[in-house]
Amino acid sequence: MNAHLNLGPVLFNWSADTFRDFYFRMADEAPLETVFLGEVVCSKREPFFAPELPAIAERLTAAGKKVVFSTLALVMTKRERDMVQQLCEMDGVIVEANDISAVSYLQGRPHTIGPFVNIYNEGSLAVMEKQGATHISLPGELPRSSLQALAKTAKADLEVQAFGRQPLAVSARCYHARSHGLAKDSCQYVCAKDPDGMDLDTLDGDAFLAVNGIQTMSYTCANLIGELDDLQTIGIHHFRLSPHSCDMVDVTKTFEAVLKGQMETGEAVEKLNDLMDGLPFSNGYYYGQEGAKAKGMVEEFGL
Amino acid sequence: MSQAPKGPVAPLSPVLLAGLAVRPLPHQLLQPLLTTAIKQMQRQHPDVFERLTSVNSPRFLIDPVDLPFSFVMDTQPDHPSLELVKSDQNELEFHVRASVRGPLVLLIELLEGKIDGDALFFSRDLVIEGDTEAVLALRNAVDGADIQVHNDLLSLFGPLSKPVDLAAQVAGKLFNRFTRDLHILSSATLAPLQRKCDAQSAAIEDLEETVTALKKQLRRRSGKTT
Amino acid sequence: MKTQKLELVCPAGTPAALRAAVDAGADTVYCGFRDATNARNFPGLNFSRDELASGIDYAKAHGAQVLVALNTYPEAGNPAPWHQAVEDAADLGAHALIMADIGLLAYAAEKRPDTRRHLSVQASASNPAAINYYQETFDVKRVVLPRVLTVPEIKALNQEIDVETEVFVFGGLCVMAEGRCSLSSYATGQSPNINGVCSPASHVRYEDKGNKMVSKLGDFTINQFSQSEAAGYPTLCKGRFVTQDKASYLFEDPTSLNAAEFLPDLMEAGVTALKIEGRQRGKAYIAQVVAAFRKAADAAANNQPIPPLGLENITEGQRETTGAYNKRWQ
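^ inputs. structure came back:
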């Protein structure tokens, strides 16, 4: 099959043990091609799991998976800048740039571009390719028409997020801390309480968004399992699964089964619905509509 | 028709005029005046109507709640029109995309660009129904046109301009009272537009709280909220 | 290094607003074409080619310059409107083009190298390495800083870069990193990056529920107001939401940025230009705010205390914030 299942970086604040166990299991059991690894959301979380990274990378590599290190999405302080620069200048690793500072450090050698860098059109795609990008994970709000136009001219591999809560925004403010009446500087790492993000509802009690530290995400779980064939038709062959606390091995296997034609999409959607414990699905962006909407196969599993 | 006045003419200037002239001016006399004004507006400020083409040239109902009638404005750039309608007519007949209701004095402020886009919705006294985008476009379009209702009326009906017709002559005499009347209007009409039954509101509030709680419970049951 | 004079960069959504800004003392005025090529693509707003031409003439006759914002991300498969906008703005004599997209910057640098390029806030370049990248790759002359940096951070930044910096001092405040926010498109399908609109009026609804007014964006309630409260516009990130069973303005209170008190510090920090937000605001608003900041900027340049701005009527009902310039904001 000419389709590739990749695992995005863990976006949530998981304990070091959970983090390590998760990756070891994914290394051993999940049919993944590339695994993106590293802290993308909040630099304050990184020291906790950083010591685990070498062992995780080794285990993944040993299991035949390609490892790519992802950089921070919002780089502001000196410490964050140094963190990104050190990662980008490491020998023998492939790095995914999630902001322009990382792009600047990585240009001239093979690297990948993450979904937090704005590649909306052929012009920016061409610049990135010229600078050495070989794999580009596209922003979540791009509609099918844009994906198709990009795939027509792309030399790099293009990827879209096919599963998981959608990253919608980042901020200098930490909303997890703010919700607990804490300042960002003394946040007590309250984001660790919500392994899949903290629900944010409207005043009439409707589920709306999810808070993950400085990041705001969709309440819904993006799900393009019904669009996998169509995506390949327009030239997108890389699919990113974004980690959640559910059984991600099973999620990966479900996607693989559909890609291999071993499972009907309807059955797969039911299965993912069970795995995510009923969290509503969405795929509106793909259809050029509200990102919160669910169309096609997942329509009845929407908000 | 006589020479065109110097300054731009606001499409809603006649609204103000009507507000002042409501008793002495019968419908038959007012309508030609409205037509004259909108035609002058079209000639002098085609850009206002051109800007509204981006939202497909909507029809608006302008309803000064303190007057016994309203206006329907069609913003087609080639043939805009301003039509007087009675407040008790069935609004569905007007085929408008949006309606703006409020005390006359607020509608004038909107017209002069004194209420800006961000503030447009802040006022509870200005009620917008239908296509919000169309109303925002209207505000932006008139704001771009340097409209001054005072000056417009002066140029249209003041002593230096030739009166456009009999109706204008009558109206022109009323103009001297303009500032004073406006002041009176503004103090008299800023009361809340709608009074609501408190008991009913409280009941609705209770129900809504129940619904909100139920929605939450429903999600908890399916185990999504930790 | 201390800047001698702060350039005042003012918004204009219409030719009338442009004239108002110039008359009130703007050094430069920024505006956009009437389409999705700019991030204030609001109905009835912005400039036709002819209007921009006369606007530039008017500004130049009064010693001011016009900047053209082309700060959305061109649509894949449809670059022509953006490319044409670069060509037209350059032909009409725009002093600079304000852009965010890397592809468009590359186009402008190649095709119209003589027209200055400014990096839009929508590119959200918040650190020296990113800013230097835009300078080295596209010869950007100025960067509009994201509204996430404190004054000391701006000062440190200016010591590590060789381009001019422009900072927001007044108006609506984005609380998310600009150009990296899909909240609006999640709820409405329309995004700042693609469509040039955030929380668009086309998706706004007010529901009068008797005892309260509810403001909605798409299918989602953004806020509700009692009869005695003024109902605000439902900008998504300024809404009231519930987390952990508590309702709050979690992202940001409905405040408006006013950094007047920081002007001497910003000057000290090496900032070149002060930017006022609000191309969607009326000309009366613009005239008043620009005049006030003209006085304030001149006072700062002469080492005099910042005079009272007298903008209470404009910010009435809204709280003011000094935003991220103050570390406590985070």
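The first helix of chain C runs from residue 15 to 23. Chain C touches chain B through 40 residues (CB under 8 Å).
thumbs up if we can close this ticket
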